[in-house]
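Q: Structure for this?
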Amino acid sequence: MKRKRVLLSVGGLSLFLVLLVMSVPLVAAGAEKTQPQILTIGCLAGLTGFASPAERITAQGYQLGADYINDKGGITIKGQKYLIKLVMEDHKCTAEGAANAATKLLFDHKVKFVAGGVMPFTIIAANSVLGPAKVLFATNYNCATPQEYGPTTPYQFVTTNATVEGMASMLEYVAQARPEVKTIAVILPEDGSAAILFPMVIQMAKARGMTVSGDAITFAMDAVDFTPIAKKAMGRNPDAIFMGNGWPSMQGSILKTARQSGYTKLIFQTNYAAADAILKVAGPEASTNFFLHSVTPGERTNPPLMEEVFRRTKAKYGHEEIMFTHKGFDNIYILAQAIEAAQSLDPTDVKNKWEKMDKIVGSTGTGRMCGQKTYGINHSVCLPDPIAGLVNGQVKHLKWMNVIMTP
Amino acid sequence: MAGVVGAAIDALMLSSIYILMSLGFALVLSINNILNFAHGALYMLGGYVCYYLAVQCGLNQWLSLLLAAVLLGLLGLFLERFCFRPFFGDPNRIIIMSIALILILETTANWFAGAGTRTIPSFAHGILKSGAISVSVERMATLIVGGVLLAVLTLFIGKTKTGKQMLAVAQNPEGAILQGIRIRRVSALAVAMSCALAAVAGSFMGALFDLKPFMGGNMLIKAIEVVVLSGIGSVGGILAGGLIIGTLDAVLPLLAGGAVTQAVGLGIIIILLLFKPQGLFGREGA
């Protein structure tokens, strides 16, 4: 009996010790999970080159997105916290620069996720490196060229409203706010997208009771003077001038020249540029009767997250060109949501989850995945769109357009 | 009619900027025998200096323009003395030096002022209207100031003793030395004037459009186009070349897509060089 008790005691003690020893790694693992790890995301930005003034502001937005996520404790994947670290590479606003930057991200930094990229030639070049390696590439914009984004780029997503979404919501707004506009002259940059976008503009305008005057008026991305472009558009005597893609320097110059040449009718742009940047280029005298997609700081209808981005932009970088920082912020913030929703760091898992997500949050509100019919792939995030105006040299918020789902 | 007048004014305005740039580039090329590829970067720097004086320091735009030209002129003296003079007679090293200057100036501008949109406030406001013709006062002011500056410069080179010394050095440096001309002084003056002209052009363009750290590249190509088209060693040729390239750039986009205009300007130069390698007004063997 006594022996049995001794055996039981020894057995119990042994069992306790075994359990104790077994629990050490579990406890250690638990402790490890409380320590955040680092998730490195590659980032493509034009830190030098012709579009760098705007691209560098966008790059600040990428960093603000990462900062915001990290300040909230990072993202959690299967119980493990991850803080986001951005590795930024300069694509120099050229195709070869983008290919080099993507190669560096892939082979030097060994990233599985890449964000950034605005201009089509940079995205196409980066994709030639990232696509075959099945790196998930969350671009910040697209111009709807098939080489840039579509069924051949299954690992690519577009995180915010881009050209097609912008054209749809702005034309819809113009149709509502200015029903007298029946003819438009269309200006597009020669960045490889004009031939794709122009038929879309004709179709979208027609659906809203407008016709396009003549063919597309195109300009070289490295043009010095945009005066002839503005005058060519004015020469068609349209009810309004439509500017597709382009940077604030280009669009502000066109606005300025048109006004200085006596054109007083509506001019509107459909891509996303900071209103105050266009105002600076065009000058207050010329900045009137102009619609654009831009967020307006302090507007009471702004979502709280947008105001947060505005506050952080001012605090960290001391400026108010927040349309680009918003785009950059959303790029990282939305990519992080997709990774967290997939609960995986494998790009294929994230891709599979992301394309099925029915709700995704950006700084302008809640959006949805779209684009299957238009792009042949439903990898676009469609978000609510802010419409602003330049009125007598002032930036004014005009309307929030609800999500127009790109088919 | 209104369109033609408008296009003519645009062409003249753009031409005057191109001529200011090209004249500076050509001065240094013909007097110092330096292909200063940093001329575009100096144009950019001039614009930024004017911006900081006008916007950050709150000075009057015209005063800022003048100060920017003076400061860039002083920078030109520094460049001539410490960056170019040690390598006179060694074109390879001078080209490397000018490329290094591009990188230094562009990177510095990008570091300090690269993010965001910066423009110099307009030098003149308002619109001149006559019937259907509307012309901005700012463009007219650019055209007038550019024209006056060119006239003064042409008179200076053609009529003053220093100007004639510059011409002598450009035509025959050895002969100029034998005549007692202080060739170093003339060289330094040429680089200083070149930089000051670039600053004026950069400031006007920074007010008409906007400033970018990499804006000098395109303008350098335009200056080279004008100088090659004109031929080296002819001020009159620079005026004609600038007018031709400026008019092409102002008018061709009205007739064709934007990128075509860039190609046409260079196409004309290639064809011209095939038949007239010395340029339209250049000397044989220059």
